[in-house]
Amino acid sequence: MLDWSSRSDAVTSRLDELFGDLPKKLDVPQVADLLGMTKKGVYQWIHQGTIPAYKLGATWIILRDELRDAIASGSNLAQEIASDQHAQDDAEDHAD
């Protein structure tokens, strides 16, 4: 049986390493560089709500921790953990 908790902790730890040295506020070029995307792609994700961001005047600000959390919540590992937990909960409900 897989230990989902330790896998989830490992992903969170890796994200913390990736984001640890970054400033608390990021701009679009920084996010594009971090994610290996174009600035246009980052703007598209901002407008779609994929990347949480705040607009001040003509400038978009992305908060480092919110971006990290958004990436973590979109992880396919997080979905696998949730599915596994639901299956486990269902099995326990039927055992009663």
Automatic annotation (TrEMBL):
InterPro entries: DNA-bd_dom_put_sf, HTH_17, SinI_DNA-bd. One of its GO terms (molecular function) is DNA binding. Pfam families: HTH_17. It comes from Knoellia koreensis. Coiled coil: none annotated. This is Helix-turn-helix domain-containing protein. It comes from the Bacteria. Residues 26-73 form the Helix-turn-helix domain.
